[in-house]
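Homework help board

Subject: predicted structure for assignment chain

Our instructor gave us this sequence and asked us to write out the predicted structure in token form, then describe one feature. I got the tokens but I'm not sure how to describe them. Can anyone check?
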Amino acid sequence: MKQHKTLLTYMLLAVLGLTACKKALELNPITEYANANFWKETTQATAALNGAYTLLQAAMGPEGVFYGEARADNVAQNLTSLNTESLNLLTNNVNPSLRITNWSQLYAVVNQANLIIQNVRVMNQSGLYANKTAEYNQTLGQAYALRALCYFNMTRIWGELPIVTKPLKDATENYYVEKSDTAKVYARIELDLDSATVLLPTSYAPSQTTKALLTAGAVNAIYTDLYMWRHQYEKALTASQKIISNTSNYSLTSLTDATALENTSYARQFTHGFSTESIFEIDFNFAERGARSFYIQVYGDIGFQPAFQVSVPLMTMFSPSDKRATISYNERRDITKFFDKTNFVRSTMDDKNIIMYRLSDILLLRAEALNQLNRPGDAITIVNQMKVRAGETGLLPTDYNNLTKSQVEDIILNERSKELCFEGKRWFDLVRTGKAISVMQPINGLNNVDNYVWPISLNEIRLNPLLKQNAYYQ
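My token output:
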């Protein structure tokens, strides 16, 4: 795992040094700059944005998986693993001394976005973006969207947060900010998404870049996720419809478009990335840029001692006809979803993209919203779309007509569990729907809703005396 760094260290890295993302971003790398001599050319702002994506790589690879899967029921401990942190999370022994409770890497992305937002506006006022309106909009819009994405992920993990909208300047500036309640955090997220949505295009050229950079579609995916998290179902339907209607950029992959299952477009979206289904994914390439997502330390062949293997409860969800099971894991319970099934070589498997949003995710969130709005038939239509693609038989009205809303929700959540397994979604699904205790208590003893949020790292509390530990961990 990556070495821990404090919030202050990461924020200063954002100011003093940047490295480039992968080739898909089509950006030139920069290695270091002095702040006084920066923000003089639009290419420098683009390079700073590139640095923000690099920091997002560091924040989410592989922490995004740990936040979204390690406390839920899709994964189990690999008994040969040397990773003790994964065992702490699986057994719900979440404490503020764990490395993963530190939010510094996500705040580093926020700080970089703050730098961009502040300075790009000044550059525009100075005329540096004359006749470059599209470039200005895209740079500023992506910065807003990155900040919103990070705050949304952080508030789902830690709850109340310090809201920081101005960049840290240097090591002499004290970073003392108290937490704001979640309502204010949500308001900040929505303001940033509102700003981003009027600035960002639906796509970029080349087309591969559309999946690696934040677009209008990615903003609508974050909107959908946020509205579902807040139980604002009509708004979630509106945001998700904008994605579904954009058929030129987003369409479902197939499990029948190749003779070998591992060569289907469905399977290759996890092993090769940038599928037609992808809305936004964090782009990694070790050979070209040295960027690693560290998925191999989390999943993969048990012989390589990854943290997790597939859980028995998840295995029992898959029917014998469901082709997704073969793609997701093998008979040894190795999690194979993100790796080539033949010629597995560890050194070439450690840079798989992290898919933040794809069309199936948004469709199934939409199904949840439809069910909550008393439209179970429309919700099951989406579920059947997933089932039939996977090789299963769709549900009939007689299978769900007499079910309660909660029971239909369970059907949708089970489908999400199979479709999105190991992609960092399951824990948030359980918390969002209020089912975390009923599902996890028999597994790890979870019994208190205050335990849903994570503790704040002791290092962060030492750095910022205004921070108060989350109540459950005091």
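Reply (TA_rk): Your tokens look well-formed. For the description, you could write something like this. Residues 133-158 form the longest helix (26 residues). That's the kind of observation they're looking for.
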